[in-house]
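stage 2 :: seqdesign
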C-alpha cells in the first residue's frame, strides 16, 4: 500500500511538472523566436549596414544559405551567405557579406558558432583575424604561408582553422552559379540606370522642342 501511494505521488508530481514545463515552453517560445530573429537581423545589418530587407535565394549547386540584401529603395546592395565548415575542434558556422561588383569583394564576416580551443582556434572570432577579410577579392583569400597572392595571416597555433575559413570563403566567392547570379543582378541594375538616363534626356529635349514650336 505504501509503495502504491509513493508511486501515485511520484506520478502526480511528474505529471504536474510536465504540464508546467509544457505551459511555460508554449508561453515563452514566441518570445524566444522573436528575440532570435531580432538578433539575427541586427547581425546581418552589422555586416551590410544599408540593408533593411533580406530574401532567401535558392541555388541548385550550393549547399549553403544565401540571401539578397536590399536597402530602403529596394536595390540589392549585397549578398549574405551562411556556411558551415569543419574547423579543428568541430563544426564552425560563419556569415559573410559580399558586394555585387564586377569582381565581388567581402563587405564583412562574422563567426556565428564554433567549437575551437579557447586562446587558440577561438581567436577566429576576433576582429584582428576577421578584419583581414574586409574588401578582399577571391584571389586574395589564401593564407600568406600558402600562396604569394595570399593576404590572410593565420592565427598562431590555429593554422588548420584559419585555413578552413579562408579556403571556404574563397570557394564560396568563386562558385560559378553564384557568380552568374551576381552578373545577372548587375545587368538588371545597368538596364535600370540606362532607362533612368534616357528619361532624363527626354525631359531635357522635349521642353526645348515644345518651346520652339510655340514661338513658330
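stage 2 :: out
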Amino acid at each position: 500500500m505504501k509503495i502504491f501511494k509513493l508511486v501515485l505521488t511520484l506520478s502526480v508530481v511528474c505529471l504536474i511538472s510536465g504540464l508546467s514545463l509544457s505551459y511555460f515552453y508554449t508561453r515563452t517560445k514566441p518570445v524566444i523566436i522573436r528575440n532570435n530573429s531580432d538578433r539575427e537581423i541586427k547581425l546581418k545589418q552589422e555586416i551590410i549596414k544599408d540593408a533593411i530587407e533580406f530574401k532567401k535565394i535558392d541555388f541548385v549547386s550550393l549547399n549553403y544559405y544565401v540571401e539578397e540584401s536590399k536597402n530602403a529603395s529596394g536595390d540589392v546592395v549585397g549578398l549574405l551567405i551562411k556556411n558551415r565548415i569543419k574547423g579543428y575542434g568541430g563544426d564552425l558556422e560563419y556569415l559573410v557579406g559580399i558586394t555585387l561588383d564586377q569582381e565581388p569583394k567581402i563587405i564583412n564576416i562574422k563567426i556565428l558558432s564554433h567549437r575551437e580551443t579557447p586562446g587558440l582556434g577561438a581567436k577566429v572570432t576576433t576582429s584582428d583575424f576577421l578584419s583581414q577579410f574586409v574588401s578582399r577579392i577571391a584571389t586574395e583569400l589564401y593564407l600568406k604561408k600558402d600562396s604569394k597572392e595570399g593576404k590572410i595571416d593565420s592565427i598562431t597555433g590555429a593554422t588548420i582553422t584559419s585555413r578552413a575559413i579562408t579556403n571556404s570563403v574563397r570557394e564560396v566567392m568563386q562558385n560559378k552559379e553564384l557568380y552568374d547570379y551576381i552578373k545577372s543582378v548587375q545587368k538588371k541594375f545597368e538596364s535600370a540606370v540606362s532607362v533612368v538616363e534616357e528619361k532624363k534626356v527626354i525631359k531635357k529635349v522635349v521642353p526645348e522642342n515644345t518651346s520652339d514650336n510655340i514661338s513658330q
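stage 3 :: structure notes
- Strands lie at 53-57, 65-70, 76-86, 91-98, 106-113.
- The chain is about 50% helix and 20% strand.
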